[in-house]
Amino acid sequence: MQSEKIVFLQDGKLLFFDGEKFYSALPRDVYKSFVGATISSKLLQTYQFKTSSDITEDQLAIQAEIQIYENGGLDPNVEYVIDYLSFKVVNSNSLYVEVFAVPTSVLKEQFKKYEKITKIVDFIAPKFLVYTSLYSR
């Protein structure tokens, strides 16, 4: 697998990103590269909280899921994909945690146009995080 190139699924197209620029990719390229996609922040449910930085990664993952269900308004009858980002708070023994959740049904709907091309998407990121990263280069 070529780790330096990423195939992005965007607007019904396949695009290679080589670390500097985007160009067209072919369906066969998804088998030899990481596959990524973006999702609109409008489709995400988010919740932020602070916690002690003396927590393990496993404990943090569990706490993030509990926090977004209990305080972020997730429906316990809906299946979600949940992930989070954490940042050390300067001059503190705390972490700032931002949790992202999207219903599995929404992901299936968003990416069904790619089903014939690939069954696996290695990562999905909110658009604002990807664009911020690209513009900071």
Overview of this structure, please?
The chain contains 3 helices and 8 strands. By secondary structure, it is α/β, with parallel strands linked by helices. It is globular, with a radius of gyration of 17 Å. The chain starts with a strand and ends with a helix. The mean pLDDT is 87.
**Spans of at least 5 consecutive residues with low confidence:** none
Q: Can you give the helix content as a percent range?
A: 10-25%
The residue-averaged pLDDT reads 87
Give the CA-based shape: globular
Strand content: 35-45%
Summarize the helix and strand pattern as letters.
Answer: EEEEEHEEHEH
Q: So how many helices? A: 3
Class per helix and strand makeup: alpha/beta
- For the secondary structure, the number of strands is 8
Q: Within the largest sheet, what's the order of strands?
A: 3-2-1-4-8
